[in-house]
Amino acid sequence: MASIKLEGLRKTYPGNVQAVKGIDLDVADGEFVVLVGPSGCGKSTLLRMVAGLESVGEGTLHIGDRVVNDLEPAQRDIAMVFQNYALYPHMTVFDNLAYGLKNRGHQRDEIERRVQEAAKMLEIEELLPRKPRQLSGGQRQRVAMGRALVREPAAFLFDEPLSNLDAKLRVQMRVEIKQLQRRLQTTSLYVTHDQLEAMTLGDRLVVLNGGRIEQVGTPMEIYLRPASLFVATFIGSPAMNLFPVDYLRERGSGLLDDLPEGTDIVGIRPDDLHIQAPDKRHLIVESTLELFEAAGAESHLYVRLEGNDQPTVIRTAGQPPVTEGETLRFHVTREALHPFNRESGRRMGV
Amino acid sequence: MQTKRMTLPGGWLPYALLAPQVIVTLIFFIWPAGQAFYQALLREDPFGLSRTFVGLDNFARLFNDPLYLNSMSVTAVFAIGTTLLSMSMALLMAMAVNRLIRSRHAYTTLLVWPYAVAPAIAGVLWWFIFHPSIGILPYMLDMLGYRWNHRTSGTDAMLLVIFAAAWKQIAYNFLFFLAGLQSIPQSLIEAAAIDGASPFKRFWSIVFPLLAPTTFFLMVVNVVYAMFDTFGVIHATTQGGPAQATNILVYKVYADGFVGMNLGSSAAQSVVLMAIVVALTVVQFRFIERRVNY
Ligand SMILES: Nc1ncnc2c1ncn2[C@@H]1O[C@H](COP(=O)(O)OP(=O)(O)OP(=O)(O)O)[C@@H](O)[C@H]1O
Ligand SMILES: [Mg+2]
C-alpha cells in the first residue's frame, strides 16, 4: 500500500510534442483516482510515467516514501492493466499469472497458492490451463486483472481496461473492479475517456485537458460545480447547455442580477430545464421542439431557442406528452445556473 | 468464403492458357528429373560409348563410398554452420533495428542488398577478403598470431565458405526477423518489464517463443539454401577442397558428373538430393499448418 505523489510532472516527446505540461497530484493510500479527458490529452502518457514505461521529463514522482523517477518499472511495486490486456499468448493463464511471481523468486508452493487465490477471487479457476486465445474478451480482461492483483502491488494502474468490451460487459466489469478495489484497498490510478466510467468508479476525478489538470474533486463536486467551461461540457451526458448571459437577461426578471462579476456565459444542465413550471422563482424561455428522443426511463428534447441558434437539450424523466414542431416553454431556477467567463473559460464567483 | 467463379467456354482455351507453364515445367524440371532417375540406374563406360543397366547398384556404391559419406558430414557441418551464423547475425541486427523503433527504411533497405548478390559474386568477394596472400583478413589474423590458409587447412576452408554463404543469407533472414519482431505488441514487453523480467529474461521468455514460427520457417529455408543453393559460393572459392573438406553434396554432383564424368553416380546423387528436398518441404508444410505452439 502506498500513496502516489506527482510534483510538476512534464513530458515532451521528440518533435516538441508537449504531452504533459506540469501536473501536481496527490493520491492518498488506498484511494481510487480516475484520470479522465478527451483523446490525446496525455492521460496514457501520465500513467506510463508513473509505471516507468515512459521516462519522467521533468518533475518528481513519489510512490510511497520513495522518489521513483529513475527506478525501473519492476522496482516501483506497481501493476498495470493494459487496454489490449497484453497477455502472453504462448503461456497458459496460470503461467501468465505466475510469471511476475516467478521473476521475483517466490517459492513454487507460494506461487501456486497465490495464483489459485487470485483466480478464485476473479472466478477464473477453470480457465487456468487455457491459452489466452481460447478466452473471450471478458475472460481475457479478468485474467489481465488477475495478473495485476496476484502480485499484491502497492498500486494498480489501469489504462482504459474496459474499452475493448461490449457495453453490457463493460458495466459488469466496472462494478467488479470497484468492488475489488474496495475489498483490497489498493491505491489505484485509472485512465478512461468514458465519463460515466469516471463518475462511477472514482473516489476522486482528475479532469485533464491538453496536458494540464482542469479540475480535481469528487465526482459529485465536479458534476455540481464544474470549475471551467471545459469540465462543464465534458462531464455529464447529454452535455451542459451554454447560453450567453444577455440572452437570458432579456427573458428573465431579476433572477440573474446576483450572478458574479465577469459572467458572460451561463451553463445549464439538460436536467435543469423544466417543462413544468417549478414553484420557485424562475425564468421562462420559448423554443421549438425539433427532435424528440425517447430513451426508456428518460427522454431527450432537442429544441431550438427563439432568437438563438444554439442547439439545446432538455432531459426529462419518462415520456412527456409533446410532439415535434410544437412550441415549448421551459423553466429555469436560479440554482441551476453555472456562471462562466468565456475568455478565461473559468467559473466565476466562489 | 464466397469465391467468384468464371466459366471459360469449354474446349481448347483453358488448355492453351495453361500450356506455356506446363511446357516450361516439363522441359526444365520434369524431364531432367526423369533423366536423373533413369541415368541413376545405368552405368557408362569411361569413354561414354556404352551403357549398362545396373539397377540400384549406383545407390549401393554411393552409400558405401567413404568420400560420399564424408561429403554428407561436410554438408551437415556447412548447413548447420551457415544456418546458425546467418540466423543469429540476422536476429541481432533485427533486434538492433527494431529498437530504433518502427523502421528506418533507408537502413533496412541497405541491409537487404547482399541478398540481391549472386552466390558466385558473394563467393568471389569473400575469396578476396580471405585470400592468403592479398586478403585483408589473413593479414589481420596474422597480426593476432593466426596463420590463415584455406588452401591447406580444411577448417579454414570450411569457415570461409560458411562466412560467404551465411553473409548472403543474412539480409533475407533479417527481413523476416524484423517483420516478426514488429508484430510482437510493445505492450507485451512492457508487461513483462513490469512483471520484473530483466531484458535478457524478456527476450528468452517472451520474444523468442513468439518468434518461433519465424525461426522455424527460416531454419528450413536456410538449410535448403545451404544444401542446394550454394554451388556458386563453393565453386568460386574452394572448389570443394582442400582434400574434400568443403565438398558438399551439390558440389559433388557436379564434380563427379561433369568433371569426373561418372554420370551414373552423379545422377544417383541428384536423386538422393531430390529426396532430401522433398523431405524438408514436407516437414516445413506440416509445421506451418500447425502454426507452432501458440
Ligand atoms: N511515443 C510518442 N511520441 C510522440 N508523441 C506521442 C507519443 N505518445 C503520445 N504522443 C502524443 O502525446 C499526446 C498525448 O498522448 P496520450 O497517448 O497520452 O493521449 P491519451 O490521453 O492517452 O489519449 P487516448 O484517449 O486517445 O488514449 C498526443 O498528442 C500524442 O500524439
Ligand atoms: Mg491513451
TrEMBL record, chain A:
Record key words, sorted: ATP-binding, Cell inner membrane, Cell membrane, Membrane, Nucleotide-binding, Sugar transport, Translocase, Transport
GO MF annotations in UniProt: ABC-type transporter activity; ATP binding; ATP hydrolysis activity
The UniProt record lists the keyword Signal = no
Tell me the CDD domains matching this sequence. Answer: ABC_MalK_N
PROSITE patterns per the UniProt record, alphabetical: ABC_TRANSPORTER_1, ABC_TRANSPORTER_2
Q: Does the keyword Magnesium apply?
A: no
Q: Which InterPro entries match?
A: AAA+_ATPase (IPR003593), ABC_transporter-like_ATP-bd (IPR003439), ABC_transporter-like_CS (IPR017871), ABC_transpr_MalK-like (IPR015855), ABC_transpr_MalK/UgpC-like (IPR047641), Mo/tungstate-bd_C_term_dom (IPR008995), NA-bd_OB-fold (IPR012340), P-loop_NTPase (IPR027417)
Any Gene Ontology CC annotation: ATP-binding cassette (ABC) transporter complex, substrate-binding subunit-containing
Per UniProt, residues of the ABC transporter domain are 4-235
**Could you tell me the Gene Ontology terms of the biological process aspect for this record?**
carbohydrate transport; glycerol-3-phosphate transmembrane transport; glycerophosphodiester transmembrane transport
Superkingdom is: Bacteria
Q: Which Pfam families match?
A: ABC_tran, TOBE_2
Q: PANTHER family annotated for this entry?
A: MALTODEXTRIN IMPORT ATP-BINDING PROTEIN MSMX (PTHR43875), SN-GLYCEROL-3-PHOSPHATE IMPORT ATP-BINDING PROTEIN UGPC (PTHR43875:SF12)
Q: What is the designated name of this protein?
A: sn-glycerol-3-phosphate import ATP-binding protein UgpC
Instruction: Please tell me the species this chain comes from.
Output: Billgrantia pellis
TrEMBL record, chain B:
InterPro entries in the record, alphabetically? Answer: MetI-like, MetI-like_sf, UgpAE/MalFG_permease
Stored CDD domains? TM_PBP2
- Which SUPFAM superfamilies does the record associate with it? MetI-like (SSF161098)
Domain named ABC transmembrane type-1: residues = 72-284
GO cellular component annotations, sorted alphabetically? plasma membrane
In the record, biological process GO terms are: transmembrane transport
Known Pfam families for this protein?
BPD_transp_1 (PF00528)
Write down the PROSITE patterns for this protein, in alphabetical order.
ABC_TM1 (PS50928)
Where does the UniProt annotation locate this protein? Cell inner membrane; Cell membrane
Asked whether the keyword DNA repair is assigned, the reply is no
UniProt topology in membrane:
Multi-pass membrane protein
Q: What main location does UniProt list?
A: membrane
- Segments spanning the bilayer are 12-31, 76-98, 110-137, 157-181, 202-228, 267-288
* Top-level taxon of the source organism: Bacteria
**Similarity remark:** Belongs to the binding-protein-dependent transport system permease family. UgpAE subfamily.
Q: How does it assemble?
A: The complex is composed of two ATP-binding proteins (UgpC), two transmembrane proteins (UgpA and UgpE) and a solute-binding protein (UgpB).
Q: What is this protein called?
A: sn-glycerol-3-phosphate transport system permease protein UgpA
Q: Which organism is it from?
A: Billgrantia pellis
**Organism ancestry:** Bacteria, Pseudomonadati, Pseudomonadota, Gammaproteobacteria, Oceanospirillales
